[in-house]
């Protein structure tokens, strides 16, 4: 985890002198509960990347130090930028699902609590080179560390959902959520170039960046937010249906955070740094007061931030040719996280027993270029239902391939 946070130090150093979605797999596979209220719990955990394997992700997250061979191996696996997302969440709730009875629809409702942590980034390859080797190897050249973002979210939520009928026919499930923010950091570099004089006589920088930084510490209530969500399923002809949903669309208000918007150029005289983490020390004797007054923030202000919402759309077609293949589907989703690309999905549900089924999904986009998701859900007795899912299982089965892996475990108990 420390190397994820080391990215924070990278940006802080730079700013000092400038100063199923991947997580909706369980929604695709868990068997719906009709008519009866139930309790539920869900755990999600994992890390995904466009370039790093599960082993490299583990090293990048857990190790304090990477030797030169590990650095070279990591950089060779990255095309133009490194994108990754680390997600950890737990939720529990009570639900009374809506259902049709004698031609009328009984509206459902539910309440849920959850704890969520996101760590996401898109880091340019030049930025990683600068992080690993400093600026000496780039004397006489200009490197571009722009188009980079890093963001962490840590918050707890209470969700209340209820059904509303559209045109007296189609149930629309609305969700209203209240959030307590524990920690948040955002560093966005739209454009940043660094030129180092061949003799180290000066360092030219041209920066356009933003920061939204709480303080790096975890608080019971460092911020407060609200969001809304909606989900609906619309029938299409006899065997098809369209599912649309949006969740966590709202804002979070963070109290007394560091806020900076900068678009500036600057020249530092006689600056070489062998390690980017030594940059502040290098600059201390080089116009320290001047660069601090030009770039560095020392005040504390409150700020708003759009929450990491999710939008999904899917089309499902029920089949009757094969009993073991009840339906197939295609879909797309998007998460408002750094480095996340829109994801396309297509798959099928396969019955493996009277109360169990397997879901297989091929994906393109998200944090990985392409992958395979597998889910298995089953029922034990009358009351217990379970769902297990792994996104990008190919990254887990063959851990040296890129992508990482993300898992979900969910359980429902009928009351």
Write up what this structure looks like.
With 415 residues, the protein is of the alpha+beta class. It has one domain (2-414): Porin, CATH 2.40.160. It is 16% helix and 58% strand. The strands form two sheets. It has a 17-stranded antiparallel sheet that branches. The protein has a two-stranded antiparallel sheet with strand order 3-4. A hairpin with a 2-residue loop joins strand 15 and strand 16 (356-366). The model is unreliable at 1-26, 29-33 and 274-287 (pLDDT under 50). InterPro entries: DUF5723 (IPR043781).
Compute the number of structural domains: 1
Number of strands: 19
Largest sheet report: 17 strands, antiparallel
User: Distance between termini?
Assistant: 40 Å
The share of residues in extended strands comes to over 45%
Helix content: 10-25%
Task: Kindly report the CATH topology.
Answer: Porin
Q: Roughly how many Å is the radius of gyration?
A: 24 Å
CATH top level class name: Mainly Beta
Specify the CATH architecture: Beta Barrel
Compressed to H and E, one letter per element, the order equals HHEHHEEEEHEEEEEEHHEEEEEEEHE
**Mean pLDDT, rounded to whole units?**
82
> Given the C-alpha coordinates, what overall shape results?
globular
**Count of helical regions:** 8
- Flag low-confidence runs: 1-26, 29-33, 274-287
Task: Assign the structural class, choosing from mainly alpha, mainly beta, alpha/beta, alpha+beta, or little secondary structure.
Answer: alpha+beta
Summarize the SSE layout with pairings:
Layout lengths: L1 H16 L7 H5 L8 E16 H9 L5 H9 L4 E16 L2 E3 L2 E3 L2 E16 H9 L8 E3 L3 E19 L3 E27 L5 E12 L9 E14 L3 E30 L9 H5 L4 H8 L5 E6 L3 E9 L8 E9 L5 E13 L2 E11 L1 E13 L3 E8 L1 H5 L4 E13 L1
Antiparallel strand pairs: 1-2, 1-19, 2-5, 3-4, 5-7, 6-8, 7-8, 8-9, 8-10, 9-11, 10-11, 11-12, 11-13, 13-14, 14-15, 15-16, 16-17, 17-18, 18-19
């Amino acid at each position: 985890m420390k190397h994820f946070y080391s990215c924070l130090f990278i940006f802080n150093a730079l700013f000092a002198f400038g100063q199923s979605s991947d997580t909706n797999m369980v929604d695709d596979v868990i068997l719906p509960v009709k008519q009866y209220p139930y309790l539920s719990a869900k755990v999600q955990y994992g890390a995904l990347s466009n370039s790093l394997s599960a082993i490299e992700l583990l090293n990048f997250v857990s190790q304090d130090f990477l030797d030169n061979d590990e650095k070279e191996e990591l950089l060779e696996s990255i095309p133009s930028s490194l994108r990754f997302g680390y997600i950890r969440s737990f939720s529990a709730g009570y639900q009374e699902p809506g259902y049709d009875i004698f031609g009328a629809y009984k509206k459902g409702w539910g309440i849920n609590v959850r704890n969520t942590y996101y760590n996401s980034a898109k880091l340019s390859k030049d930025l990683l080179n600068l992080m690993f080797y400093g600026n000496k190897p780039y004397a006489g050249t200009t490197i571009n560390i722009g188009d980079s973002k890093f963001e962490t979210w840590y918050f707890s939520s209470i969700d209340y959902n209820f059904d509303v009928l559209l045109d007296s026919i189609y149930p629309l499930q609305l969700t209203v959520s209240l959030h307590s923010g524990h920690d948040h950091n955002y560093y966005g570099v739209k454009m940043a170039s660094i030129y180092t004089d061949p003799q180290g006589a000066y360092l030219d920088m041209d920066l356009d960046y933003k920061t939204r930084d709480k303080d790096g510490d975890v608080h019971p209530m460092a911020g407060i937010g609200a969001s809304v969500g909606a989900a609906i399923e619309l029938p299409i002809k006899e065997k098809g249906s369209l599912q649309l949903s949006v969740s966590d669309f709202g804002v979070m208000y963070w109290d007394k955070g560091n806020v900076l918007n900068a678009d500036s150029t600057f020249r530092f005289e006689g600056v070489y740094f062998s390690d980017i983490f030594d940059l502040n020390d290098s600059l201390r004797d080089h116009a320290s007061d001047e660069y601090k007054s030009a770039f560095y923030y020392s005040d504390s202000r409150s700020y708003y931030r759009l929450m990491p919402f999710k939008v999904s759309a899917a089309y499902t077609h029920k089949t009757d040719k094969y009993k073991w293949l009840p339906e197939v589907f295609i879909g797309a989703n998007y998460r408002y996280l750094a480095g996340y690309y829109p994801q396309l999905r297509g798959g099928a549900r396969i019955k493996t027993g009277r109360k169990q089924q397997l879901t297989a999904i091929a994906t393109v986009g998200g944090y990985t270029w392409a992958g395979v998701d597998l889910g298995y859900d089953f029922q034990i007795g009358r009351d217990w239902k379970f769902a297990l899912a792994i996104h990008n299982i190919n990254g887990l089965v063959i851990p040296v391939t890129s992508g990482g892996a993300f898992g979900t475990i969910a359980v429902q108990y009928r009351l």
